[in-house]
Amino acid sequence: MAMKYKVYIDGQVGTTGLQLRQRLEHHPNIELMLISEELRKDEAERKRLMNSADVVFLCLPDEAAKEAVFLVENPNVCIIDASTAHRTNPLWTYGFPELSPAHRQEIAKAKRIANPGCHATGFIAAAYPLVKLGILSPDYPFSAHSITGYSGGGKGMIQEYEASDRPDAFESPRQYGLNQTHKHLPEMQYVTGISAPPVFTPIVCDFYRGMETCIPLHTDLFLKKVTKAELIAYFQDFYKDSNFIKIAHEESGFLASNLLADSNGLTLYIEGNDQRMTITSVFDNLGKGASGAAVQNMNIVLGLDETESLI
Ligand SMILES: NC(=O)C1=CN([C@@H]2O[C@H](COP(=O)(O)OP(=O)(O)OC[C@H]3O[C@@H](n4cnc5c(N)ncnc54)[C@H](OP(=O)(O)O)[C@@H]3O)[C@@H](O)[C@H]2O)C=CC1
Ligand SMILES: CC(=O)N[C@@H](CCC(=O)OP(=O)(O)O)C(=O)O
C-alpha cells in the first residue's frame, strides 16, 4: 500500500483551498485532515491539526497567513503558503522548481515554501530565463500586462462578478493596479534580480479562470542579439526537462487566456518578428498560478513524482 502523508489545509473552503482539496482528495499518498465547519477559525483546533500534519497549506489572506505560521511548533511540519506574505522573505523558499536544479533542490528540503503569485508566475517564467541567459540586462525597462479571470480575486470578487445586479462595467475588461503598487511587484523583482519592478498592467475580465501575462521585447535593447527563431530555441532548451512548462506558437493569430484552464500547465508563446517580439505565458491562475503549483511543490517535498494528481 502507498505511504500516506497527513495534509491540513488552513482556509479549506476558500477559492484556493477548495481547489487544493479537489486535487488532494484523489492523491494516492495523501490523507487529508479536514476541520469541521464550526471550528475552522478556532485557533486551538487549527493548531492541533497543523502540528500533527506532515504538510500544511495556508490558503488565507496575508495577515491570517502570517499569524498561522506562529501556530506551528512541530519542526517537522512543512508549510506551503499560498499568500503573498512570505514570498520575498529570505528565510522562505520560493516555490518555482523549473527555474534551475538548485531551485528544485532547495524546495525538496525546505520546511517553509512560499507559493508564487499568479501574475508573478507568468512574468517570472519569461523574464527569469531572459536575464539568466544574458539576452536582457537586469536594467532592461521591463513592462508586462496580464489578463486574469475573476476567480483571481477570491470569494469576494467571484460574488461580485456573479451577482445578478452587477454593474455593466463588469462585462468589459477592467484594468487595475493603476498606482503601480500591485502586490506581486516585489516578488517579480526579487526572484528575477531585475533592477526595477516592471511597469505592470493587470486586467480582470468576465471569465472564471485562466491567465495570460505578456512581456513586450524591444530587440534593439537586447544584450545578446538573437533572432526570434534563436530565442525560441533558447527557451526550448531552458525548459526542456519541465513536465509543465512548454513553448508553442499560435497559428490562428489569437491567443486566449483560458487555453490552459483546469491544468497545471504553462505555455510560453514567443511571437512577433526579429524587430518586435512578445513573450506570453498562458496558464490557469488557479492551476500553475496557485493550487496546482502548491501540489507540485508538495510532491517535490515529499519525494513523490512531481506530476502526481496534476494534469
Ligand atoms: N484566487 C487566486 O487565484 C489566488 C489566490 N492566492 C492567495 O491565496 C490566499 C487565499 O486566497 P483565496 O482562496 O482567493 O481567498 P478566499 O477569500 O476565496 O478564501 C480565503 C479563506 O480563508 C478563510 N479565512 C480568513 N481568515 C481566516 C482565519 N483567521 N482562520 C481560518 N480561515 C480564515 C476565509 O474564511 P471565510 O470563508 O469565512 O471568509 C476563506 O474561506 C490569499 O492569500 C490569496 O492572495 C494565490 C494565488 C492565486
Ligand atoms: C483579479 C485579482 O484581484 N487578482 C489578484 C491576484 C491573485 C492573488 O490572490 O494574488 P496572490 O497570489 O498574491 O495571493 C490580484 O491581482 O491581486
UniProtKB/TrEMBL annotation:
It holds the Pfam family Semialdhyde_dh. GO terms for molecular function: N-acetyl-gamma-glutamyl-phosphate reductase activity; NAD binding. GO terms for biological process: L-arginine biosynthetic process. It catalyses: N-acetyl-L-glutamate 5-semialdehyde + phosphate + NADP(+) = N-acetyl-L-glutamyl 5-phosphate + NADPH + H(+). The active site is at C118. InterPro entries: AGPR (IPR050085), AGPR_dimerisation_dom (IPR058924), AGPR_type-2 (IPR010136), NAD(P)-bd_dom_sf (IPR036291), Semialdehyde_DH_NAD-bd (IPR000534). The keyword Transmembrane does not apply. Its EC number is 1.2.1.38. Residues 6-107 form the Semialdehyde dehydrogenase NAD-binding domain. The keyword Transmembrane helix does not apply. Keywords: Amino-acid biosynthesis, Arginine biosynthesis, Cytoplasm, NADP, Oxidoreductase. It is found in: Cytoplasm. CDD domains: AGPR_2_C, AGPR_2_N. GO terms for cellular component: cytoplasm. Pathway: Amino-acid biosynthesis; L-arginine biosynthesis; N(2)-acetyl-L-ornithine from L-glutamate: step 3/4. Gene3D superfamilies: Dihydrodipicolinate Reductase, domain 2, NAD(P)-binding Rossmann-like Domain. Catalyzes the NADPH-dependent reduction of N-acetyl-5-glutamyl phosphate to yield N-acetyl-L-glutamate 5-semialdehyde. Belongs to the NAGSA dehydrogenase family. Type 2 subfamily. This is N-acetyl-gamma-glutamyl-phosphate reductase. It comes from Anaerotignum propionicum DSM 1682.
